[in-house]
Structures are given as C-alpha cells and as structure tokens.
Amino acid sequence: MTPETAFPLVILALAVFVPLGREYLAFRREWGIGRLAALGTSFSLFPALGVGLAISLPLAAHPPVRWIATVVVTLLAYALAVAVLRPRLAPAPVRSRREP
Fold it and tell me: In a 3-state reduction of DSSP, which class is residue 21?
C-alpha cells in the first residue's frame, strides 16, 4: 500500500473511530454500563451500515445519491438501535425515600 492510498484510509478510520470512541465513553459515563455492553452498543454502528448499504443498492447507478442514502439510513438505524437498547442497558435512577 502506497502512502497516497493509505492516507485517505487513515483519515476515514479516524473519522469513524474517534466518534465511536466518544460514544463508547458516553455510554460508560452517562448510562453507567460495563465495558462489554458499551463496546457492543457502539459497534451496533456496523450492522446499521449494512442496513444502509443494502437499502441503497437500487441507487447504484447514481453513486453520490447512493452514498447520501447510505449515510442517512445508517444514522437512522444506529439511532434507533441505541434508542431501543437504552432502557435495557441503562440502570434505573436511584430515588430518594425522603418523606415530606
């Protein structure tokens, strides 16, 4: 692999994995879930990407439109997956038992 081909791949990898790392840390801090659960939740992006690619296949004749559709569907699928997982993974809030 030449540096000319490696550089765009490194940039693309950073563009994907830096936000995933932030998302992982947010799941750990805000949701209070364990490492494996946070990693699995973060990596649900990849099945969402598969859904986006599959749905955008009919647009293969129009590459720019296909990639826009892939990104939009991937983001929607990922957001839906995280929204479904949140109630199951996040611990219940602790309530105070103070009586007035």
Answer: helix
